[in-house]
Amino acid sequence: MIELTLLIGQKAQLDGKTVLRIRGTNEYDAPGAKTLIDWVEPMVVIDEPDYVAGKVQGELPTLRQLQYKTGKPVWFNGAKASGPYRLLATEAGDGVKSAFVIGGKRQLVANTHQEVAAAIGSAKGDVLPIPSDGLLSLPVLVLENVKAFVSPPKRWN
After folding, report:
1. What is the mean pLDDT of residues 115-135?
2. What value does the mean pLDDT take over residues 43-56?
3. Lesser CB count within 10 Å: N end or C end of the chain?
4. Nearest to residue 79, comparing CAs of 20, 14, 155?
5. Per its UniProt entry, which superkingdom is the organism in (predicted)?
């Protein structure tokens, strides 16, 4: 078990083996928090993301790191991830190059499809074929975008 500090200053226990994802907080998270941990339920703490990831890595050897489009790290349990996935039309651009799925949600990253596959593969996760970044056939392109419009994929923030 890992001991971390909640916003109210109280210590809390985290079972590192159950972590899905770790990231630094953003403007939509609780003010004063520095790290968001997705495990049994989301947990925000005042501990630094690098510190939390280091502690979790000690209990979860399949923890892997990739980057957001901003260059900030996102850590995830590679054994529970699948990818890489082709970007949908609404996801492409602005530094996003690939995606993977963990916990039933898509995580967009600045890493290439090859880097995503390598990270997931090194943790013995579900590595998918590298998507082509070239043009898709019109029927496939239309189908992917209609599906995304009708039922948008859930995404991690």
Report:
1. 90
2. 98
3. C
4. 20
5. Bacteria
